[in-house]
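Changelog entry

Holo records now carry the ligand SMILES as an explicit input line rather than a separate metadata file. Below, a converted record for zinc ion, shown in the new format.
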Amino acid sequence: MKISDAKKKEGKYCCAYACRNKPNPRKAGLCHKHYARLRKSKDPVYDRYNKFIYKSKKRGIENSVTLAEFRKFCEKTGYIITKGYRGQSATIDRRCNAHGYHIWNMQILSNRANASKGNKTRDDFVCPF
Ligand SMILES: [Zn+2]
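Structure line, unchanged by the conversion:
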């Protein structure tokens, strides 16, 4: 992302290249969108973690995963690199649907497999609780 010092000094527009949104003084002279992009580029796992927590809250699903656990999970599975919206993209799956997002209950599943799984729990997974 290109940041213009001249635009930053002027303070009229967001200082990202060619952006005409209003800058937020608490966001380093950037608009909401460009500040979010900057944060994402600096720490993609942290950004993804916040969205993960926010989304599970919105869906009313319990989530006990800490940032440290999530970092380890991403490192082990390569989730940040392979995630996305296509059929083969990685998504976080709850192995047992009766339980929320806990580190023992999480695995990577392709978007397609996760969608076709629906509300069922796979036969080969025995829930420990
Ligand atoms: Zn902007």
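Spot-checked after migration. The radius of gyration is 19 Å. The first helix runs from residue 5 to 10.
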